[in-house]
Amino acid sequence: MKFRTRRIILCSLASLAGAWLFGGVTYAGAGQESTSYGPAPQSTLTETRKDYSDKVAAEYNYRFGKDKPFIPGNAKIEGEGFVQPGAFPNATYCAHCHQEAYHQWRQALHSNSFRTPFYRTSVNILIKTRGIEFSRHCDSCHNPIAVLSGGLTQKSLVDRKFDQDGLTCATCHSIQSLQSTNGNGGFVMGIPSVMVDEKGNRIPGEVPYDEIMKHTDRHSKAVMKDFYRTPEFCSACHKANLPAPLNDYKFLRAFTAYDEWQNSKFSQRNPLTFYQGDFTTCQGCHMTRSPNALPDYGAKNGTFASHRWLAGNTAVPFYYGFDEQLQKTIDFLRSGKYLNVDIFAIKKSGDDKMIAPLGSVPFQLEPNNVIEAFVVIQNKNIGHSLIPEVRDLYEGWVEFEVKDSNGRKLYHSGFIKPDGMLDERAHSFTNRPVDADGEFVDNHRVFAIHSVAYDNTVQAGRSTLVRYQFRLPADVKGPIEITARVNYRHLRQSYLNNVFGKDHPLYPLVELASRTRVLNIGDNQPVQADSHDNPDWMRWNNLGIGFLDQLQYVDAVDAFNEVVKLRPDYADGYTNIALTEIQWEKYDSARLSIQKALALSPTSARTLYYSALLERRAGHSDAELADLLEVVRQYPQSRDARRELGITYYQRDENQHAMEQFEALQAIDPDDVAAHYNLAILYRRAGMKDKAAEQQAMFTTKKFDPGSPTYSLSFLRRHPEISIESIPWHMHTDASDQAKESHLGAQ
């Protein structure tokens, strides 16, 4: 190598502890330290790691098998055995050249992924209940150094001072490959390196800064990979499941932010989205470039890719007093780009006619009218669901308020009570996981989950319809003001109470989006649209999506018909009618709508997909095959098209082609149950018994448990407020008991 080195001298204790000493900076594992400098020969490093690994292995709990030291997580490390924690350079070493990155990282969730009381509360319950070895599931993402160094075992020899830094620069920038997109730490870590030699071989540990500056190209090769810029990189941790070794039950999907992105318009991999958009990665939203305030050699043209990873976590910066991170997070959430709130329509009691769209049509209101309000919440520009990931801990909800001209509250839903708790009957974007006894799984005890009694979210590009009913007082005179807001709090009050007790500050509540309309008593004429309002055709379209998801097929078709009246050139309007009619099992009329759509857009992959389903229904196998082949040609990573094409080939007894499609589907989604089921059959037919058995086993653990609804029903019987929310087309109304709660919330 070109740069100067000094021979490294490793004492036996430092060897076992795993001291990695470069550039005059010492970082040693297990509390040990050495006083030598320079990179050691590869043979010495291998021997040093082996000595450390053997020492750890002698006391390590291999509960899940000698060949599976990091299960129930999926994290892996290159080479054999464990790796010394001192192999990972501390973030302060990187900060010498990357001050902006370090400043942002220190306040970001990644650097606080392990130490926060919010995370520790849950993981400590897991450790106390089941054992520290089970925490490898969570810490594969929250604290991978602890996992890969063998620290998560009884009688651990590892000094856990790295806990305070969570995910460091060296953890993310040492990942060498991805295993798949099934998450739970689905990466393969390399021995950390900040530089490669002339031949491209990674040099473990730290090197002098002046050597890095002389060979910045070799530094970049060591710490950057092209896949770091892909959503698949994020999927390693922003997708999770609960495997059988964790819960002694079966495989359960947990959160699927990556899958949600893949099914969104931003991935351009799914032809079935309601709207189209430009390709955008996770990094495109959460690592946007902005001018750097501090010197950073990673900056380009005066801008730096954000290492704050702004998203929805206001709790961590609030707890630690990171005011800059908190304000930037709030600004991110309040940007107004992500949601559209539309008070779309009202109905008067006794009149089935919908007054819609509000603002575009005239109508009359009188005192004593009982009003139904239709609020449409559109997930417009979020690349995942509203609310994503562990939504049992987060609170996102709709607040709906009606006031008269004097500011008197006539109706209020979604208020915060004096004790900080959310109105139980608020329309919230949350879920309720339950255990085998039908009890709510509080404190994120994921190992106890057996079912989900209620899961309400708005997927990317879709809309939800929320309905409210209230009465106008007999003495109302002036105009009334109706406001609908989407609010968000990280975390829910009951969880914060569990962590801190009830005596704690009120954590930030952020308004994500809102819309207000003023309705006159008497005559109401059309008004000019607000700058944030969607055009009327899109307002009808979003209403139709909301009706469709609530299984209100007549209303959905009526709404989509309004779309094509306003935009007769809009092919997707007819496709939306057909989609609704297919679910409604009105196949003949669906075919007519598909024909109209294809006349406007003959190569539309979305329309061809639904055309194929109708051709299958009619027994036209060749036409079905042709349609799906064209869809897959246009969208080779469409999981829906691959699945249906596999079924088509299967039904045509073209087993090899069917096998290829289900294998392609499994590459897109390794947890697809249909792929497991069909591949088990196809492999068995092909004489591939081992592969068939493997697929059969995965199908068995991942398939739906027919007994799980009983756990959910037990919970819903005891919680009528949640039971009502679980009905898609439920109505929020100003019944007397809720009116009292509203009055209490206003005090």
TrEMBL record:
<dbReference type="Pfam" id="PF13435">
    <property type="entry name" value="Cytochrome_C554"/>
</dbReference>
<feature type="repeat" description="TPR">
    <location>
        <begin position="537"/>
        <end position="570"/>
    </location>
</feature>
<dbReference type="GO" id="GO:0009279">
    <property type="term" value="C:cell outer membrane"/>
</dbReference>
<feature type="repeat" description="TPR">
    <location>
        <begin position="639"/>
        <end position="672"/>
    </location>
</feature>
<feature type="signal peptide">
    <location>
        <begin position="1"/>
        <end position="30"/>
    </location>
</feature>
<feature type="domain" description="Cytochrome c-552/4">
    <location>
        <begin position="94"/>
        <end position="174"/>
    </location>
</feature>
<protein>
    <submittedName>
        <fullName>Tetratricopeptide (TPR) repeat protein</fullName>
    </submittedName>
</protein>
<dbReference type="InterPro" id="IPR023155">
    <property type="entry name" value="Cyt_c-552/4"/>
</dbReference>
<feature type="repeat" description="TPR">
    <location>
        <begin position="571"/>
        <end position="604"/>
    </location>
</feature>
<dbReference type="InterPro" id="IPR011990">
    <property type="entry name" value="TPR-like_helical_dom_sf"/>
</dbReference>
<dbReference type="GO" id="GO:0046813">
    <property type="term" value="P:receptor-mediated virion attachment to host cell"/>
</dbReference>
<keyword id="KW-0677">Repeat</keyword>
<dbReference type="InterPro" id="IPR036280">
    <property type="entry name" value="Multihaem_cyt_sf"/>
</dbReference>
<dbReference type="InterPro" id="IPR050498">
    <property type="entry name" value="Ycf3"/>
</dbReference>
<dbReference type="Pfam" id="PF13432">
    <property type="entry name" value="TPR_16"/>
</dbReference>
<keyword id="KW-0802">TPR repeat</keyword>
<keyword id="KW-0732">Signal</keyword>
<dbReference type="InterPro" id="IPR019734">
    <property type="entry name" value="TPR_rpt"/>
</dbReference>
